[in-house]
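Researcher: Please predict.
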Amino acid sequence: MARGRDRVHRDAGARARHGPHVHGRVGCQHLAFAVDSRAEVERLHRIALDAGWTAVRDPKEYPRFTDRYYASFLEDVDGIRIEFMHNPPRDVG
């Protein structure tokens, strides 16, 4: 896997060798990328949609994780779930 400026590239031959990903099959199920802001979650979500990825969950808060957790979930063309998340540290006061 190589990372471009605004995108992640994976081995294109993997799909030809193994077919599309199926949830529950052994292998990579979910990749999460921590980013610096909610705006960055939304920007990367838009880039992924423009690249043809499928939205699983649009950007939103996930208070069941923490009261600061903000994320979006998508699937790439091979069915790998990708998460862009922002979870800033709790303010110490």
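Model: The mean pLDDT is 82.
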